[in-house]
Write a structure and sequence with these properties.
Elements (H helix, E strand, L loop, with lengths): L2 H4 L4 H7 L5 H12 L3 E5 L3 H4 L2 E2 L2 E6 L2 H7 L5 E4 L5 E9 L12 H13 L2 E5 L6 E5 L2 E4 L3 H34 L5 H28 L4 H25 L7 H12 L6 H7 L17 H5 L6 H11 L2 H6 L2 H5 L6 H22 L2
Parallel strand pairs: 1-4
Antiparallel strand pairs: 1-6, 2-5, 3-5, 4-5, 6-7, 7-8
Bound molecules: adenosine-5'-triphosphate.
Enzyme class: transferase
EC number: 2.7.7.85
Subunit structure: Homooctamer.
């Protein structure tokens, strides 16, 4: 059964619900600082109802200061499923004691058992150990200090920058090979594998950002600044080397990102994503369509790029075309044809300089 139908929150929902900047997190942090300890259940389903004993019905909107005040009392506080209402305070919870628990204190044992028995999200705030622990089903997670996550996220940003520069170097090499008409399948697969490393770090960063909530704003900005243009360039590479035009680069990117979270991607899988279903000899030459290089020519509209590729079939033919040949393409006059030729020359010069940097 999926999480939504069972009323169970997904791990991402949970982390977002209690991320810094949210009212619940503010309330939890207040209770932690006040050293009263707390036991909070989010979700009042039938299974929770069956194990609640006593307590006061509160039924008011959630506010961080109410949570803090109510936590001064013994027992558990019960919120509704979305966490925006406080339903009951001072409740005794009586979960099945046959359910195994690895915790020692009563608050934490109760939290673990209630979570396993009811599937609701249960939060224990320890009075003695200054830690907030989340339980849901068999999932247990001790919230990390924001400073620790921020340090890890900053390290990930530095790693992302390093991987980006390695990737850019291989994109430069690919461009040179494209101008020299000597790209093999291996060459563009190497670029995709380097991109895979970038996506791995991106995934790691996204995990940190979920936990950081509003505290992760700057990290998110940095990540987007590093990745936006790079991802666009990578999608153009995918478009250039896809088996046919049915392949959607943004979908390939999404699928690569999902796959990188569970391991590395084989050449064959990458080729499948790009639409190659039959056997491919990796040392064979493969001519790109030319979308990426043509996009580097200033003020060349997308429709003209399409016309060029439709007319000439691939980048090598476009590079070898004379001004007169280019002039014959719909939408291209003599001036634009000269600009395209000039554009290619400038790109090529810049590439050779970059290669020697
Ligand atoms: N079954 C329960 N239902 C509701 N509240 C409970 C239950 N068990 C424990 N508590 C609450 O937890 C409080 C502390 O219990 P205990 O010291 O045994 O827990 P603990 O897990 O060691 O937590 P801490 O680290 O905060 O001391 C109790 O005073 C009570 O308010």
């Amino acid at each position: 059964m999926d999480n939504k139908r069972s009323g169970e929150l997904s791990i991402h929902d949970v982390v977002q619900l209690i991320a810094p900047g949210t009212p619940i997190r503010e309330g939890l942090d207040n209770v932690l600082r006040a050293n009263t300890g707390g036991l909070i259940v989010i979700g009042y389903n039938e299974k929770v109802k069956a194990i609640v004993d006593g307590g006061f019905e509160i039924n008011c909107s959630f506010s961080p200061s109410f949570l803090y005040e109510l936590a001064k009392m013994d027992g558990a506080i019960i919120l509704n499923e979305t966490g925006n209402k406080i339903l009951i305070a001072n409740a005794q919870l009586a979960p099945d004691t046959d359910i195994a628990s690895t915790e020692t204190g009563m608050r934490h044992r109760t939290a673990e058992r209630v979570a396993k028995q009811t599937k609701a999200l249960v939060i224990a705030i320890s009075q003695r150990r200054n830690v907030i622990t989340l339980y849901q089903g068999n999932f247990r997670y001790a919230l990390k200090d924001i400073a620790v996550i921020l340090t890890k996220a900053n390290q990930a940003i530095q790693t992302l920058e390093k991987y980006k520069s390695v990737l850019e170097q291989s994109i430069t090499n690919l461009s040179i090979l494209e101008f020299e008409d000597s790209v093999t399948y291996n060459d563009f697969l190497l670029v995709l594998h380097r991109f895979e490393m970038v996506l791995k770090i991106k995934n790691e960063l996204l995990g940190f950002l979920y936990e950081l909530g509003t505290e992760g704003r700057l990290i998110r900005l940095q990540m987007n600044e590093i990745l936006t243009e790079l991802e666009e360039e990578m999608m153009l590479i995918m478009k250039d080397y896809a088996f046919n035009r049915d392949v959607k680069p943004n979908e390939v990117l999404q699928r690569m990102q999902t796959m990188t979270s569970s391991g590395t991607i084989d050449d064959i899988v990458l080729l499948r994503l790009l639409g190659y279903l039959g056997y491919v000899h990796l040392d064979e030459y493969r001519n790109p369509c030319g979308y990426r290089i043509l996009n580097k020519i200033p003020r060349l509209p997308a429709v003209i790029i399409e016309n060029l590729i439709n007319n000439f079939g691939n980048l090598t033919n476009i590079l070898n075309a004379t001004v007169e040949d280019l002039d014959d393409v719909e939408g291209i006059g003599e001036i634009r044809a000269n600009k395209i030729k000039e554009g290619f020359k400038l790109i090529r010069e810049r590439l050779y300089t970059d290669r020697h940097l």
